[in-house]
Amino acid sequence: METFAALAHGMAVAMQPMNLLYALIGVFLGTAVGVLPGIGPALTVALLLPVTYKLDPGGSLIMFAGIYYGGMYGGSTTAILINTPGESASMATALEGNKMAKAGRGGPALATSAIGSFVAGTIATIGLAFLAPWLVDFAVRFGPEDYFALMCVAFVTVSATFGDSPVRGLTSLFIGLTLGLVGIDKLTGQARLAFGIPELLDGVEVTTLAVGLFAVGEALYVASRRHHAEEKLEPVRGSLWMTREDWRRSWKPWLRGTLFGFPIGALPAGGAEIPTFLSYSTERRLTKYPKEFGKGAIEGVAGPEAANNASAAGTLVPLLTLGLPTSATAAMMLAGFQQYGLNPGPLLFAERPDLVWGLIASLFIANGMLLVLNLPLVGLWVRLLAIPQAWLYAGILVFATMGTIAAKPSVVELSMLAAFGVMGFLMRRFDFPIAPVVIGLILGPIAESQLRRALAISLGDPMVLLQSPMSATLLGIALIALLAPFVLRGLGRFKANED
Amino acid sequence: MTPDTASDNLPREPPRRIDRAGLAIAAALVVLAAVLVWDASKLPATTMYGMGPEAMPIVIAVGLVILAAGNLIDALRGRLPPRESMDPKPVWLIIGGLALLIGIIGFGGGFILATSALFVTTSAAFGRRAVAADTVIALAITTLIYLAFDKLLTLSLPAGPLERLL
What we know:
Number of domains of chain B: 2
Number of helices of chain B: 7
Number of domains of chain A: 1
Distance between the termini of chain A: 60 Å
Radius of gyration of chain A: 22 Å
Helix content of chain B: 55-70%
Largest sheet of chain B: none
Oligomer: heterodimer
Low-confidence stretches of chain B: 1-15
Radius of gyration of chain B: 24 Å
Structural class of chain B: mainly alpha
């Protein structure tokens, strides 16, 4: 079995003492930052990117895996203890989890979410390890036109799935695509949208955009509506441990959540919102205790939390095998690869198997560490939540600007950070989704160069996009996914008029 | 998406007023598209086969114009999501803090002073009134960050008068 050998090799890489230390630091930092309210896993990865600048690629990616999973665990702690999920994927967890915490069952809620995340993360990472080589074999045969078509699918699904209006989602995507044009065109060396500013020739940094939109934008948004309501921290009361009853009620939702999360995350369909809410509604339907739902049912925490983690591992499938990020967090992971000039995809599996399999193996390790770290240390994380909001956001902004200052200490770069911050604030206020901007920036240039390569090979004949059956199918899917929301909306209006 | 749109389109709901912010968003998208076309028009066409560097900006500009129309329709029908009231003062305080940070870095004031300024303005934006105490805290925290990242992780952070003392 090829996978077992590769995985064993990866384990050998990940078990090196230095790499174990990197994983531990990553897990620790990821949880600590992820637990802060308003900070989701994407921002956690973006904020901690500068910490990994000076490491070698292997160690840095292993630390990354830890940060990624740590951010997810931290996010669910916040969702349970103060009803402010850092990201929409934790919203379902917050629904029941916060109710449980209010009812004095915060401990079991945290425990079921941590153990559920562990179970789901482990199963999904096994899925990743077995699915990835198979997909890589498939992806090796992809031509540039197939890649372009695949990215079109990702563009459409990502911008139509996030947020609730396809027009606003696509607007976000196109802003990202526009930002992706800035800088020197890789194929001809001509500068686009640089306006004679030398700093712009290198293009827009993904981290500057992400930190500006997520961190600065969030701080501005929270500050602007501070007069509405203060969030309340629920103290963890009573036992931390789950009773036999809790276990009995949790294990099936964990497995069902994993079954929802992994495939949906692995498809280029973007986002963990769909699987978490599917899991929530399924548990609500199947439960033997329907009266508890809405008042703190443990199934409503166990299922969505497992779905969330499984889909996080699922998004690594297209990321590692195709180089296709389908969530903001995956886009940040891709940025992490790119800072070392590495491009995830079938080639990376062939050229740097130690790196890829070391990363996959360290996902298992990170997951185990998190389980051990999280349950006993929950008191420490809870104390982080008690930092006064003013200092918390001041600290976040200091850290956010530090990343940019460390990467490029220029007035232009910092002004871009501030401008993206204001943009993020306005987008939050007018309900434009943010992830498509980041995806557009990072995938836009790749999609463009694949398209231009395809057209150069075909001597300029655009029919090449339809002659490959793969590309024609994918473009068809993209078109259907693009038009479906508008058609459905039309039908919805038709029905509403009929009533 | 369907549940949202269904509730959006309830026939009983009185027609909402035209949303001015929505009009501004649509206008901004058109301006962005114009900038793209203007910039692309300055690129010399050099490609022999397929697409040159000027093709994609045009495609994106067309997309932006279509989306501007979509946003315009939403604004005219008043279909923008409801917005909560906002307090502009803290927003301007934080933006001022960012401007201070950029200015201090630009004039060589160094990392500690620049990020301390941002820390103090942000915490003031979140309602803190103890500016003097916050300044002390800010200086202490940013000095620690500077030491940790510049000395331990050997990231190069810009040095000013304070950093040279360390």
